[in-house]
Amino acid sequence: MNIFDGFSVALTLANLGYCVAGVFIGTLVGVLPGLGPVAAMSILFPVTLGISPVSAIIMLSGIYYGAMYGGSTTSILMNIPGEAASVVTCIDGYKMARQGRAGVALGISAIGSFIGGTLAIIGLQTAAPRLAKVALIFGFPEYFALMCCGLVILTFMAQGSMIKALMMAVVGIFLGTIGTDLVMGTPRFTFGVVAFMDGIGLIPVIMGLFGISEVLLNIEEKGSKDVFSGKISQLLPNRKDWADSIGPISRGSVIGFLLGLLPGAGPVAASFVSYSVEKKLSKHPENFGNGAIQGVAGPEAANNAAVGGAFIPLLTLAIPSTPAMALLLGALLTYGVQVGPLLITQRPDIFWGVVASMYIGNIMLLALNLPFIGLWVKILKIPYAFLFPLILIFCVIGAYSLSNNVADVIVMVVFGLIGYFFKKLKYAAAPLIMAMVLSPLMENNFRQSLLLSHGEFSIFFTRPLSAFLMFTALLLLILPNLRWVRAKRDERIEAELE
Amino acid sequence: MNREKWGSLIWLGAGIGICIGTFNLSLGTMNNPGPGMFPFAAGAILAILSSILLFRSITSKEATTQEEPFFVSAGGARNAGLVLIALLAYAFSMDYLGFVISTTLFLAFLLWAVEPQRWYIVVFGSLFAALLAYTVFKVMLDTSLPAGLFGF
Fold first, then answer.
1. Is residue B7 in a domain?
2. A451 touches chain B (CB under 8 A)
């Protein structure tokens, strides 16, 4: 099967419909501050249980990359990022809008997103099958080492304290062990609650940490929203804008794609790195922060390219690099799809179908974004007092319909409160989610490795590939404690926060 | 005591609690790891990491500096608390009252208490939104929603 067969899957009427629905909902949640793509994907997950895995993944991924497009609209018009990957777009995008160039800023961000997204899909289509072939040599120890290494990279890349990020990863691993042990059938930490016998659901936890907690924070920090009121004209960039943007878009695409591969980096880091690279390369760095088009074009291409990159570790190694990818992994496992290096050969319809749908989705987004700007602006004007009850209702419906159980709703609310405190105390939720989804896979590979080695823990350090991964993980654990590395890292974090 | 210390103490307690909780599960041997081994390792690592964080927060100079207030404002904290209580009440009542009634009451409460609206918006807005959500999710998308004693 190849990309052309992928198009035959993606172009069926049903899948085309799911793709349109996905990118439309994605753009909508991207536009709306306070509802991110991860929360939206988890709310809609129960709806996908009745459809084929291909259609479900097409729609869920559409929401994710659609949100990257939509997020920039809020950044440019309101100076409020619709979602985290559009934070940098605020800096120059909003300034451009104030200078009467809102149309061009929106135009270049859509075009940059399209180019970045499309180039990344080409990268995904080319690299993933090759990587999957390499990954076939992975045994249990290599997988365990890879997951350890992935989690350590994730905590290394996390904003703020690495110890806190590691703690969150460990909590996630623990949460993933709750429920019936698959080998012996022993219930673990279920406290006699029947609903916990199958484990704590990933989706209610995600909705709580990313949906409910965000609502709680937003209603606490009521702020007035200053929506752009001027007329938006001339969406297409002129020749000079093109000349200024093409370099940042190309570099942003490469940066985004490569960073998308790394656990924890994802679209957010990609947009920040692209912005600082463009600022460093520019002959007029003083223009950055004052409406430089490069500061919109580069990061927007980067955050979309990162989404394409993030699919590679997910579809070839079953390693999610962002919470959204963790959710997709959880979804694939729920649909009963064997995720890993064999996915591309065993379920080519999913791999090639999703890749092809991403090409289609990107074109749809370009068509959807620019002509509908007026509609998005209108949606932005909905007062939060009406919006947040609806977000809560969607979350409750999403959680309840997973298994017709109020227990899932209560888990979601409890994790909403936990997420609220996490944000106040500066604990990142992403490592928890990724560790939670990886935990059962990690435990299985760990136990199988020890069975294989007759109890010799050294198996993780004697096989070359797993030794390399384990030592990389150890190195990354030690590195932040070296003084000069810590100083550099703190500098980076400060720059990102500024 | 500052927040960092409180936070690390709670996590330390959680780590120790997890380790104790695995005592009635078999840890197994290295040859044949039992169901308790993985959660025990997670609990132990959590306890170690939180001890490091606790130690750092005690020895750090920043510990004595002024922290920004935990809640943005008293009114804001009240609103967040109200939403949370409403959500729990909604969750516990939905199996008895059914989706439409519990959702209407939940929405009406939020529109009345959190950011107060005019009475007709509270009454009709919440009823309309609940019926719309029921139509979209139950009738159109066939999502399972709590039926309650009245069947809707």
1. yes
2. yes
